[in-house]
UniProtKB/TrEMBL annotation:
<keyword id="KW-0560">Oxidoreductase</keyword>
<comment type="similarity">
    <text>Belongs to the NAD(P)-dependent epimerase/dehydratase family. Dihydroflavonol-4-reductase subfamily.</text>
</comment>
<protein>
    <submittedName>
        <fullName>NAD(P)-binding protein</fullName>
    </submittedName>
</protein>
<dbReference type="InterPro" id="IPR050425">
    <property type="entry name" value="NAD(P)_dehydrat-like"/>
</dbReference>
<feature type="domain" description="NAD-dependent epimerase/dehydratase">
    <location>
        <begin position="9"/>
        <end position="265"/>
    </location>
</feature>
<dbReference type="InterPro" id="IPR036291">
    <property type="entry name" value="NAD(P)-bd_dom_sf"/>
</dbReference>
<dbReference type="InterPro" id="IPR001509">
    <property type="entry name" value="Epimerase_deHydtase"/>
</dbReference>
<dbReference type="Pfam" id="PF01370">
    <property type="entry name" value="Epimerase"/>
</dbReference>
<dbReference type="GO" id="GO:0016616">
    <property type="term" value="F:oxidoreductase activity, acting on the CH-OH group of donors, NAD or NADP as acceptor"/>
</dbReference>
Length: 349
């Protein structure tokens, strides 16, 4: 891809699984990168995570304490050419106020960012991390999709915003928030005809190494729990119903940065998601790590005797593979192998 080296990119969510991978790729591509942080103290964590010190002179930080405050991004967008907006609360059982903890930061944060960008003529493109959850029609009684699966769902598909009756769990709040944020950005583009274009990336569950993880437990926090976590958890999945569609963290990171290339037409969206079966995970570990037999029998990978309920959805990923990656998306085997390598390294170190 043809990168406009030296241009300034603002990245939100760089301390997260996807965000950190995007940060590393953006720096490697030659961009100047400015990171938003809610807590300035995390700047040292980011700096120390970089491989070597070659990129430090192109990395800067800006504090944005509350995305829901009007004008929150005004200072952060000074001189910025591109924005990669990844930050968004994940579903967590500990959340009790779903609007405060999940919906408002996701939806109002997106709105504030877009409206601030209107006042900064240097901004050329905004890439927003959405989710396949934003375009599915989910039955709240059993968490299965109501969306017909006889034809692949395209990136242009939209689902109406969910009402308050749907939002009874943190999982449903996450789905509702992602749906509303995607619809808001689409409406914003239609109503304001901004000087910048907007691209959405819609991944399934993101599996793969977590750049800031220091323990196996940290490595499977977030979406990895549904991947490599299948052979690490020993508890019951109870009523979990999971869309068994995933994306390698390196694929989604590469797609974010490649989406900045001006040769990629703006104002379009891309799905990155491939199907997997939960029972594949333990088979992959046994096949690819035969020397780690003890780990599978009684060690870190001794779980995986129970699986969550799951379903597949047919998505059209052709534009992602053709326009953003130039190849097929990595499958579940690469996703799990790379996750396992990190876990083993953390255990042995």
């Amino acid at each position: 891809m043809n990168y406009e080296q030296g241009k300034l990119v603002l990245i939100t969510g760089a301390t997260g699984h996807v965000g950190h991978a995007v940060l590393l790729r953006a720096l490697s591509a030659g961009y100047q990168v400015r990171i938003t942080l809610r807590e300035p103290s995390k700047a040292a964590l980011i700096r120390d995570s970089l491989p070597g010190r070659d990129h430090l002179h192109r990395l800067s930080f800006v504090t944005v304490c509350d995305f829901t405050q009007r004008g929150a991004f005004d200072e952060a967008l000074q001189g910025v050419s591109y924005i990669i907006h990844i930050a968004s609360p994940l579903q967590r059982p500990a959340y009790t106020d779903y609007n405060r903890d999940i919906i408002a930061p996701t939806v109002q944060g997106t709105s504030n960012l877009l409206h601030s960008a209107l006042n900064h003529p240097t901004v050329q493109r905004i890439v927003i991390t959405s989710s396949t959850s934003a375009i599915l029609d989910i039955n709240p009684t059993n968490n299965l999709p109501l969306t017909p699966s006889d034809h692949p769902i395209s990136p242009t598909h939209r689902h109406p915003n969910y009402g308050p009756d749907f939002i009874t769990t943190s999982e449903h709040a996450y789905i509702a928030a992602k749906t509303a944020a995607l619809n808001l950005a689409s409406a914003f583009r239609a109503q304001n005809s901004p000087h910048f274009d907007i691209i959405h990336l819609l991944p399934g569950y993101v599996f793969g190494p977590k750049g800031l993880a220091t323990t196996p437990r940290e490595a499977i926090s977030g979406s990895n729990v549904f991947g490599i976590g299948l052979v690490m958890r020993k508890g019951s999945w109870r009523d979990w119903v999971v869309e068994a569609m995933s994306c390698h963290v390196d694929d989604i990171a590469e797609a974010h940065v490649n989406a900045l290339d001006p040769r990629v037409a703006g104002n379009q969206d891309f799905i990155l998601s491939v199907p997997f079966r939960p029972e594949e995970v333990k088979s992959i570990i046994r096949k690819r790590f035969p020397e780690e037999g003890d780990m599978v029998k009684e060690g870190i990978f001794a779980g995986g005797n129970e699986y969550y309920r799951w379903f597949h959805v047919s998505y059209d990923v052709s534009s992602s593979e053709e326009m953003l990656l130039g190849r097929k998306l990595r499958g579940i085997e690469e996703q799990i192998v790379d996750s396992a390598k990190q876990v083993l390294a953390l255990v042995k170190n």
